Amino acid sequence: MKVEKDKVVTIRYTLKVDGEVVDQGELPYLHGHHQLIPGLEEALEGHEAGEKLSVTVPPEKAYGEPNPEGVQVVPKSAFPEGSKVEVGEQFYAQDASGQPMPFTITKVEGEDVTIDFNHPLAGKTLEFEVEILEVRDATPEELAHGHAHGPGGHHHH
Ligand SMILES: [Zn+2]
């Protein structure tokens, strides 16, 4: 069975950026429903279980280029008392509609804290090693929800 729209595909993957492993694991996903970054989904299309692929994804088909407006300087006092205000720490702000917006501290200079709302992988070329473990038909419920269910997949509570 080939990887195509509306199939549930389980992959084992290793993600490298600049030669360093930044993520790895196993993931079931529903193909053709924007669950993966576009460049990886395109590369998997038409392949079958058991195949291994090396995929290089440029930023424009991954997390895009960083937006300069996503970088801001805020006072240290804006963080809750006792927060670990250090480079590399992640926090969540809320946008106007109450949605959580993750950001990362990229610089601390005295009372000035530089924060970045861009995805940490924005502007990066991603190197994937992918093994296709399983390809199956999606259930009607999975199609209705737009994601894969089952072990390691999406869970409902
Ligand atoms: Zn669901």
Short description:
The protein has helices at 38-44, 140-145, and strands spanning 7-17, 20-30, 52-57, 71-75, 90-94, 100-109, 112-116, 126-137.
Outline the structure in words.
- 17% of the residues are buried.
- The model has no long low-confidence stretch (mean pLDDT 94).
- The protein is elongated and about 60 Å long.
- The chain has helices at residues 38-44, 140-145, and strands at residues 7-17, 20-30, 52-57, 71-75, 90-94, 100-109, 112-116, 126-137.
- It has 2 helices and 8 strands; from the N terminus they run E-E-H-E-E-E-E-E-E-H.
- It has a 4-stranded antiparallel β-sheet with strand order 2-1-8-3.
- With 157 residues, it is mainly beta.
- It has 2 domains: 7-63 and 122-145, Chitinase A, domain 3, CATH 3.10.50; 68-116, Thrombin, subunit H.
- The protein binds zinc ion.
Percent strand equals 35-45%
What order do the strands of the largest sheet run in, or round the barrel if closed?
2-1-8-3
Number of DSSP E strands = 8
Q: How far apart lie the N and C ends? A: 31 Å
Residue-averaged pLDDT, rounded? Answer: 94
Number of helices: 2
Structural class: mainly beta
- The CATH topology of the largest domain is Chitinase A, domain 3
Bound ions, cofactors and other small molecules, one mention each: zinc ion
